[in-house]
Amino acid sequence: xxxxxxxxxxxxxxxxxxxxxxxxxxxxxxxxxxxxxxxxxxxxxxxxxxxxxxxxxxxxxxxxxxxxxxxxxxxxxxxxxxxxxxxxxxxxxxxxxxxxxxxxxxxxxxxxxxxxxxxxxxxxxxxxxxxxxxxxxxxxxxxxxxxxxxxxxxxxxxxxxxxxxxxxxxxxxxxxxxx
Length: 179
Known about the structure:
The protein is of the alpha/beta class and 179 residues long. The chain has one domain (2-178): HUPs (Rossmann fold, 3-Layer(aba) Sandwich). Helix content is 53%, strand content 11%. The protein contains seven helices and five strands.
C-alpha cells in the first residue's frame, strides 16, 4: 500500500517508517508542522529529518515551510491544552489533502508514536478526515517502538527536541523546570 506518513520529527519517523515497510508498504513522508517555534527549532527538526530520511532512503515532501500563521490562526484564544487537538487536526487535514491529491492509498502520523499525545483523539480525527478525503487512515499504534526509535536516532546523532513544538508547550516546559 502507498502510505503518506505525516512526520513531526526525525527521531519519531525512524520506527514508524521501519514498521510500515516491514508490513510491505511503500512509504513517503510529509513534513508539515507550522506549530514548531521558534524558527531555529523548526529548522533543527527539519534538518534532523533530512538526515534521518537520507539514512533510511525516505522521500519526504516539505510542505509550505515556516507557515506558522496557519497554527496561530487555528489555536487563537486556545492557549491551554485545548489547543493540542486543534493543532493535530490542522496537520492531519493537510496530510489527508496531500494524500488525496497525490494518489496515496492511506495516511498516518508519527504523532501516534508519542506517549505524550492523545492517541485515541488522533485516531478519531484521522478516521473522520479519511472519510472526508476518501483516503484510508492507518491508526497504527507505534508507541511500542518509541524507545527503539529514540535509540536509533541517538546512534545517528539526530537532534532531539525538548518540547512538543509550539511556544505554549515551550512555556509549559520552562514552568515545569522552574518548579
